Amino acid sequence: MDAIILQILNGLDKGSAYALIALGLTLIFGTLGVVNFAHGALFMLGAFCAVTLSRLLQTASVTIDPERTDFLGNPLKVETPYVIEWFGPEVGSLILDWSVPLAILFAIPIMGLIGLAMERGLIKHFYKRPHADQILVTFGLAIVLQEIVKYFYGANPIPTPAPDALVGSLDFGVLVGFDAGTVIYPYWRLIYFVFAAVVIGVVFAFLQFTTFGMVVRAGMADRETVGLLGINIDRRFTLMFAFAAIVAGLAGVMYAPINSPNYHMGMDFLVLSFVVVVVGGMGSLPGAVAAGFLLGVLESFASMPQVVTLIPGINQIIIYLVAIIILLTRPRGLMGRKGVMEA
Amino acid sequence: MFGLKQKDATLFLVVVAITALAPFLLNPFPENSELAQFNAGYPDLMQRFMIFGIFAIGFNILFGLTGYLSFGHAAFLGVGSYAGVWMLKLLSMNIIPAIIVSVVVAGVFSLIVGYISLRRSGIYFSILTLAFAQMSFALAYSVLTPITGGETGLQLALDDPRIFGVAQTADGSIPLTNFFGLEMRDGIEIAAGPWLFTLNVGYYLSAIVMLASFYVAIRIFRSPFGMMLKAVKSNQQRMNYTGINPKPYTLAAFVISGMYAGLAGGLMVAMDPLAGAERMQWTASGEVVLMTILGGAGTLVGPLLGAGVIKYFENIFSKINDNILYEWFSFMPGGLQDFFVTIIYPFIGKGWHLTLGIMFMLVVIFLPGGIVEGGKRLGRLFSRKKAEGGGSDATPAASPAE
Amino acid sequence: MGKLYTSRRDLLKGGAAAGIALAAPTIFPSSAWAGFTNEPTGGSVTLGFNVPQSGPYADEGADELRAYELAVEHLNGGGDGGLLSTFSSKALKGTGILGKKVEFVTGDTQTKSDAARASARSMIEKDGAIMVTGGSSSGVAVAVQALCQEAGIIFMAGLTHSNDTTGKDRRRNGFRHFFNSYMSGAALAPVLKNAYGAERNAYYLTADYNWGYTTEQAVREATEGIGWNTVEKVLTPLAATDFSSYIAPVLNSDADTLVLVHYGGNMVNSLTNAVQFGLRDRVVNGKDFQIVVPLYSRLMAKGAGANVKGIFGSTNWHWSLPDEGSKAFTKSFGTKYGFPPSQAAHTCYVQAMLYADAVERAGSFNPCAVVEALEGFEFDGMGNGPTLYRAEDHQCFKDVLVVKGKENPDNEFDLLEIVEVTPVDQVTYAPDHPQFAGGELGACNPGA
Question: pTM value?
Answer without folding.
Answer: 0.91
